[in-house]
Design brief:
alpha+beta, 7 strands, Pnp Oxidase, Chain A, 42% strand, 3 helices
Length: 137
């Protein structure tokens, strides 16, 4: 598996608001995957955000290892899976991060303004791609 940085064509793919699935681990080791919004930040880390009440947040606090698979919106055969770990968790009291994600996906300001949110920043350790994003040797 290649390590970051991502090649330009792969970085361009994951910079788009594509469908994505994140996988974390329960305390018993069972993987749990859910659809998620994500955003690649300027420093190469991945931003995700979740409701404070989500079980995933507890799982990430106990085991920060994650995998995020991004599927090209127009060709799901083309996808990139990035493995890494959560390196920062921070409250999002003013909903700045969830608004960034919501805007990135074309939904405007996030609609639920009452639930507390938490942002996670994921550092990519390795990745692999398929289809048009297939690893280049």
């Amino acid at each position: 598996m290649p390590i970051p940085p991502l090649p330009d064509d792969v970085a361009a793919l994951v910079a788009q608001p594509n469908p994505a699935v994140i996988t974390s681990n329960r305390p018993d080791g069972q993987p749990v995957s859910v659809a998620t919004w994500y955003l690649i930040e300027d420093d190469g880390r991945i931003l995700v955000n979740m409701d404070e009440s989500r079980r995933r947040l507890a799982y990430l606090r106990e085991d920060p290892r994650v995998s995020l698979t991004v599927l090209a919106a127009d060709d799901w055969y083309t996808h990139v899976s990035m493995q890494g770990r959560v390196v920062a968790l921070a409250d999002d009291p003013d909903l700045v991060d969830i608004d960034r994600l919501s805007n990135h996906y074309g939904a405007g300001a996030y609609s639920n303004r009452t639930n507390k949110r938490v942002s996670a920043r994921i550092e990519i350790e390795r990745w692999h791609g398929w289809g048009a994003a297939k690893n280049q040797s």
